[in-house]
Specification:
Protein name: Type I toxin-antitoxin system SymE family toxin
GO cellular component, one term: cytoplasm
Structural class: alpha+beta
GO molecular function: hydrolase activity, acting on ester bonds; RNA binding
Radius of gyration: 18 Å
InterPro entries: Toxin_SymE-like
Distance between the termini: 45 Å
Helix content: 10-25%
Organism: Candidatus Pantoea soli
Strand order of the largest sheet: 1-2
Length: about 70
Amino acid sequence: MAERHSKSGTAADKAAKTERQYLVGYRPQRGDTSSPTLNLSGRWLREAGYRVSQKVTVTVKQCCLTLTTGS
């Protein structure tokens, strides 16, 4: 049985989260709204080893994006 004041979803539990959900949107380009866009941001990127201004390679497969760095 859980302690009376125990909490689920602590900061450590949240930091260990390995899956995130985002919404694919669009960025209008000369009135064209058919170009999808996806913006990733958050401290979890730093915690995963990504740094500001670091080059990232995106490998594209059907319904799958893989992000890797050279270091």
